[in-house]
């Protein structure tokens, strides 16, 4: 299946997914804080 850490390409893809998930969490957190501050829903 290719989903092992033995292959460099999949290792880099797994690292990118971690970064993407982390950044997405930050964006959601920002939207929730904005909603709490303004009362407007941006989601």
From TrEMBL:
Keywords: Oxidoreductase, Transit peptide. One of its GO terms (biological process) is fatty acid beta-oxidation using acyl-CoA dehydrogenase. GO terms for molecular function: fatty-acyl-CoA binding; flavin adenine dinucleotide binding; glutaryl-CoA dehydrogenase activity. InterPro entries: AcylCo_DH-like_C (IPR036250), Glutaryl-CoA_DH_mitochondrial (IPR052033). PANTHER family: GLUTARYL-COA DEHYDROGENASE, MITOCHONDRIAL (PTHR42807:SF1). This is Acyl-CoA dehydrogenase.
